[in-house]
Amino acid sequence: MHTRGTHLDIKNAFVHGRYLEIIEASDQISSNEDKILLGMSLMRMGEHQQAAFVLAGIESQIEEMIEVLKHLGIVYANMGEPDLSKRCIERYLAFRPDDDEALDYLEGIPETAFVSEKSVELARIYASQGQYEMSLDIYAGLEELKTDEEIRKDALDVQRLFIIKTLEEWVGRLNK
Q1: Residue 162 domain flag
Q2: pLDDT tens, position by position, 140-164
Q3: Cα 91 to Cα 58, 63, 64, 154, 174, distances in angstroms
């Protein structure tokens, strides 16, 4: 059992289902990642109202942090990093699709074209480098995607990896 004054490893406690220990240590929890685990622990213990309170506090911070994506995209554009700029602004627009300023910036970002012909091989190379968004753009433009089951499976795998990477980046930002 956890006693006041000692540090509880929240992640480890959560993995092992020690939700009550996490709840008891709530006054020591400061990182957003640990607050998420606290909210999930409260939910699993049937304390839905308290869970909603904890998780709503994090949700309000997300609204503020979304703005960072737009400004980071502008900074990357000014640094001559069009791919990074485009990625940030597109992610920002997923939350704020009506932001005309961000849309204007996105339209002004030059396209980076490394080769003129899109191919399955190029999509696979981008995916192997972790450039999932570029890989997905190529897959989306391939005619073979409609008829070739293996290519469609590859594209879905890349899409899953892109989603996981995006979620991991958000959790990382929440920790800061």
Answers
A1: yes
A2: 888 887 888 898 898 899 998 888 8
A3: 19, 13, 14, 23, 16
